[in-house]
Specification:
30% helix, single chain, alpha+beta, two-stranded antiparallel sheet
């Protein structure tokens, strides 16, 4: 094995090492003895402040705050010189403690016994809620506690409410001081009334350009065929939350948000849409048939209408329908008639043209003061 000639950094002697050791940065010293000498760092001479004796100490030890005394004896003597005398507040006995202890709020008692006894001492105070006198410990007072005599008095702290005037109905109502600036309404009814005015039209973040006319083919009989298809093939499960739609009439949602999708035609077989957003370019490419519909919970339907989330949900519904049902999302009229024969338990939705508000969409109001 080829070797390399080196010169020892400590004694100057020539020696040989292998190429593998040299490539790893080794081979600086000719022997273990020279290697140990290289690790001995320069020491600094200091004078012990207790006995006046000179001694050597490493610079690294000084940087860590050490190297002040020449021995343990001198170190212990220095600690004894820093002791101060105090009187124990429990037994009245005089004792000595270190100055560092006093500076750190310690060294108050002469022994552990007196320290434990101090915690048993009680201080009399007056409860600000009920006015009764009670006892508490000194430690509780120091930690910000011990103000009230019981939990009941803590919960019944007298507070002054602020009078406000509702910006909708003009009625007076009371709120706690911390809500004096934010409280504007006396109840949820007034809040919703004001919101229905403020968040209308372009002021609503989900506004897409106003009302849109539905395709004439998108009627109640067609919606029934959509819901029947998903009832039989997907157990009436909502594609958004993946939970079954049981207690409410499902909302029939256009997967691409195009209200005229039932009447779309094209010559080259390619379809593009703007996801129902006014003034948007039709850049969203539809894969497969554009006539795709899904049943949704009322609350889930509201989530899909967010303009920032429309692309995500449109592609999600498209993928489910294309991969799971081969691009189909509703029954033909003949298939729907056959479905009714085999599923007599199915409750037929949309039996009249009146708009029904499902329980999930019905507004819930509660008084707020």
């Amino acid at each position: 094995m080829p070797k390399v000639t080196r010169i020892c950094l400590i004694c100057g002697k020539e020696f040989q090492i292998t190429n593998s050791i040299a490539s790893k940065g080794g081979g600086k010293y000719c022997s273990r003895e020279c290697n140990d000498k290289s690790k001995i760092k320069e020491k600094i001479e200091k004078v012990c402040p207790i006995c006046g004796k000179k001694f050597d100490v490493r610079a690294s030890e000084i940087s860590r705050g050490g190297g002040k005394y020449c021995s343990i004896d001198c170190y212990n003597k220095s600690r004894a010189m820093k002791r101060i005398k105090k009187i124990c507040p429990i037994c009245g006995k005089e004792f000595e403690t270190f100055l560092s202890y006093v500076e750190n709020d310690k060294g108050k008692y002469c022994s552990l016994k007196c320290s434990i006894e101090s915690k048993k001492q009680r201080i009399k105070r007056i409860c600000p809620t009920c006015g009764n006198e009670f006892e508490t410990t000194e430690s509780s007072i120091l930690n910000g506690r011990g103000k009230y005599c019981s939990r009941k008095c803590v919960n019944n702290i007298p507070t002054t409410k602020v009078n406000k005037i509702c910006i909708v109905c003009g009625n007076k109502f009371e709120v706690y001081p911390y809500r004096s600036e934010s409280a504007l309404y006396c109840s949820y009814d007034c809040y919703h009334k004001d919101s229905s005015i403020r968040f209308i039209g372009e002021n609503n973040p989900n506004w897409t350009g106003g009302t849109k006319e539905y395709c004439e083919k998108f009627n109640n009989p067609f919606k029934r065929r959509v819901l029947a298809f998903w009832y039989e093939n997907n157990q009436n499960i909502c594609p958004v939350c993946e939970e079954p739609i049981i207690e409410e009439t499902p909302h029939c949602h256009h997967s691409y948000y195009d209200k005229k999708s039932c009447c779309l035609t094209t010559s080259d077989g390619k379809y593009f849409c703007n996801l129902g957003i006014k003034n948007n370019e039709k850049t969203f490419e539809i894969i497969g048939d554009p006539n795709k519909f899904v049943p949704l919970h009322c609350s889930c339907h509201g989530k899909t209408n967010n303009k920032k989330e429309r692309k995500y949900y449109a592609r999600k519904f498209e993928t489910i329908i294309n991969e799971k049902f081969g691009g189909k999302s509703y029954f033909t009229e003949e298939e729907y008639k056959e479905f009714l024969i085999y599923h007599p338990e199915w409750k037929i939705p949309y039996k009249h043209n009146k708009k029904i508000i499902s329980p999930a969409c019905a507004p819930v109001f509660s008084s707020q003061t």
